[in-house]
Structure formats: C-alpha cells, structure tokens
Input
Amino acid sequence: MNIQTTTTVEPGFRDSVNTMVDRALAALDLPPGMASNIRTCNATYTVRFGVRLRGELHTFTGYRAVHSDHMEPVKGGIRYAMNVDQDEVEALAALMTYKCALVEAPFGGSKGGLAINPSDWTRDELERITRRFAHELVKRDLINPSQNVPAPDMGTGMREMAWIADEYRRLNTTDINARACVTGKPLHAGGIAGRVEATGRGVQYALREFFRHKEDVETANLEGEIEGKRIIVQGLGNVGYHAAQFLSGEDGAKITAVIERDGAVVNDNGIDVKALKTHIAETGGVEGFPGGKYIADGPALLTADCDILIPAALEGAINLTNAHKVKAKLIVEAANGPVTAAADEVLRENGCVIIPDLYANAGGVTVSYFEWVKNLSHIRFGRLQRRQEEARQIDLMQEIESLTGNTLSEGFKQSFKNGSSEIDLVRSGLDDTMRNTYQITREIWRRSNDNIDLRMASYILAIKRIATAYSAMNL
Ligand code: GLU
Output
C-alpha cells in the first residue's frame, strides 16, 4: 500500500527496505546480477487452514517467507497480528538476512506471521491454532533445526515457542536435535537464560557502545554519558520494556515519555517503567497511571523534545507525516523498520543520527543463536567450567591474603569468587557482539563520504558478507 503525501510518495514496508538496500548496493561494486539476487526474496509460503473453535470452522492465513538461504538454517520470528501480510513478512525476512550477516549469526533470513489478533482467543484456542500452524510449516520443512528456525516476534512469546517445539517433536520423534527447531523457548523446554530480555539488553549495549565514541556522540549533537539523557520510548512490549528498564534502572537515563496504544504518559523527572508495566498489565493501557501525565494523542509524543527516541513498536511509526517534526537527536530503532525510507532521508538532512534496526535490535537473534547452539550441544553453557573457575578464584584470593597479610573485603570476595553462569555468558556474548559490530560499522561510517550514515554502513558490511557467501556457492 502506498501512502500519498504532499511532498512525495511513501513506499510500502518491503519497498522501503529495498530502497535502503539499493542505496547501499550503489556504494558497492558487486558482480553483475549479484545485487538483484541478494535483494530478492527467495520464496514465500502462504497457508490457509481451518480450526474448529467455538462450534465453528475458522480459517486462518499464515506466511513463512525465506528471503535468503545463503546460510542455513534461515532464521526469523513468527508474528501474530491482524495486519500481517506478504509484504510485511517479506520485508521482515529481508531485514533478518541483513541483521544475521551484520552480527555474524550464521543464518539466512526468514520471517513468518499469522493474521490473527491473539487477544481475540483464549489460551487453549491459541494453542490449537499455533499447533496447527506449526504442523503446516513443519510438513514443508519451514520449521526444522537445520533448515528454518523460528523465534518469537510481536504477539508471540515463550509459550507459543514451546507449543511449536512440541509439535515438531511429535512429528519427528527420532530427531535428537528437535529442540533446536525453534528458539525463544522457556528454560524448561530447552530455552536459554536471558533470551526474553535479549533484544532490550542489546539496545542497551548498542547505546553504551555508541556513547563510548565521543566523535559519534558529538555528531548527534549530544555530549557526556547515557546518564541523565531524556529518552522517549514508543511501545512497552518485550523489547521497549526491557530497553527502558535497563537504561533507566542501570544507566541513569530518564524515560520522559512512554507511548502506548491508548495514549502516552509523560513525566520530565522520569517514569518508573516497572510500575507503568504493571499498570498496563492490570488496566490494559497507560491511562490513569499515577506516575505521570496522561496524553491521549500518543503519536504526538514521537515529535516531542528529548535527547533519544526509541521506537519499539510497529514499522513505519516515523514517516513523511511526522519526520520533519522529530526533535530527538538520536533515534535507536528497537523495532523493525520504524523509520520509512522517505522519513530516513528527511531525518538525515536534519542531522538526526539513527542507530538502525538491523543493528540495534539484533540482540534477539544473537541470543537465539546461542540458544540454538546450546540445543545442538545438549548442555547448558557454563555447566562444565563454573565450579572450576570458582575454585581457582578462591585459591587466588587466599594466596593474595596470605602473601600480603591483609584480608580482602567480604563484598569483593563474594562477587569475585563466582564462576560464570549461563546468564553471565549469554550477556557477555551479547555485549561482545554488539560492541564488535558497532566498532566495525562505525569505521565504515567514519571513513566514507557524507552519504554513508550508520544505516548504510551496516548494510554495506552485511551485503559484503552475503556477497562473499554467494561467491562461494555453485549458482
Ligand atoms: N523476531 C526477532 C527479530 O526480529 C528475533 C528473531 C530470532 O531470534 O530469530 O529479530
């Protein structure tokens, strides 16, 4: 669907992603035909299936798009939302291809969706619908540990992933790697510690790394640290909630506004994110939250005064209708595709720095990668070495105390002696991924001409890696 505006035409989501990719391709010198091969979505499977519910046969429409299988398995979430369609899943699958290449998660890109409003159905009904959808995808190897590995996305979570994993296992009773057919599972069903918080945690690590580079901070017309920065968050779902919670609770940022479906809450002294989340869970919206002022026109807050804007909801939130009014100096794209290609151009011209989606929200798939590896290795990370590390630390502390004749403080001893648990290792691996990726990307950004921003630098790096994989294939 195209949205006609006074200035220019805003492309649909898939065209918007392609427009960004085309800009990056123009800066690269790929062999003839390679560019269009990379950017084309390989296949999209549409399935319509019936489930008898409430005495009636209901028909559901689902999709699984495979954008690029230059590496297998292909990876990407499954979204439950009424507006899911082919254009959307193909755009999201393309983003997965570039995202995985960028953070060196060894996967191709895929995405799935079911056109459904999860809140219309009970838990048991959702289980039947999910199992049936999974069944359809498993039959065609569109869920498979070595070919296609889904994960949570908007409208889905651990619960749905556990149903999917169980459905795969029932159909593949002898597959010893069955649990690796999907990521984002609960711990008891083969999940990994830290997967739920991973995307929000990744946003925090991305922002921390950005603030380690003074030159980049200055380009955004900001200064100093994350501490004290005024942040507006759009969407307090899994990603927005964790990002806001970590940035305010651990890094001292102030969440000055939260935009949700029913409006926004504003508080210049900073919003208690946990309390707001509880309020939303209890009442269904932000209205009536005592810790801030309620504003019915939520989207208006996207253009309110702040240092950092974190869109963590739907694609296209910042578009030609509001881009020219955005006052944030830095945008961190926690959602997939929150800024349209046309809005991106407006924002760049206005000097706004954007930490792009394919990097900023890659924490989810990064930890999914760790979960997949855990499932294939059939052992929890840290299980072998944790106590050995602990024993060595204790030896070291005792040796220091006996050599110096001094006693180390109890607090230090307690924290130093700990060996690495799974959550420590997951966070360490995620932090390392986010830091490394940013450092390589910013090098490209800084060494290039003015036309290359962080988004372009990310796409250039990702596309180069994909092109290398393509060159080694017998096409
Ligand atoms: N749905 C998430 C994303 O958009 C996670 C994908 C995954 O873990 O495979 O990145």
About this structure: Residues 1 and 12 are 5 Å apart (CA to CA). The pocket of glutamic acid is lined by residues 75-77, 151, 153, 183, 336, 361, 364-365, 368 (CB under 6 Å).
